[in-house]
Amino acid sequence: MFGLFKTNPIKKLRKQYDQKLTQAMQAQHDGNMRDYAKFNSEAEDLFDKIEQFETNSNQR
């Protein structure tokens, strides 16, 4: 009952992940490979966090 209004951290991380991928794609389209690499790396880190949350929630 008390978890009804609790935010879902996976949903928030997925939104951030999608934003980073969009930024990476735009940087690549503009020819800015340095920013592309930075955004892509940040997106990979977020994906790793998402996987950790999902595996932890499946173990419960």
List keywords for this structure.
single chain, 60 residues, mainly alpha, 2 helices
General description of the model:
By secondary structure, the chain is an all-alpha fold. 82% of the residues lie in helices and 0% in strands. Helix 1 packs antiparallel against helix 2. The relative contact order is 0.15. The model has no long low-confidence stretch (mean pLDDT 91).
Task: Please summarize what this structure is.
By secondary structure, the chain is an all-alpha fold. It has two helices and no strands.
Topology:
Elements: H1 9-30, H2 33-59
Strand content: under 5%
H/E element order: HH
Computed CA radius of gyration, to the nearest angstrom: 15 Å
Taking the alpha carbons of the first and last residues, their distance comes to: 18 Å
Q: Return the average pLDDT rounded to an integer.
A: 91
Structural class label: mainly alpha
Question: What oligomeric state do these chains adopt?
Answer: single chain
What low-confidence regions span 5 or more consecutive residues with pLDDT below 50? Answer: none
Annotation field: number of helices = 2
Overall, the morphology is elongated
The total beta strand count reads: 0
Largest beta-sheet details: none
Share in helix: over 70%
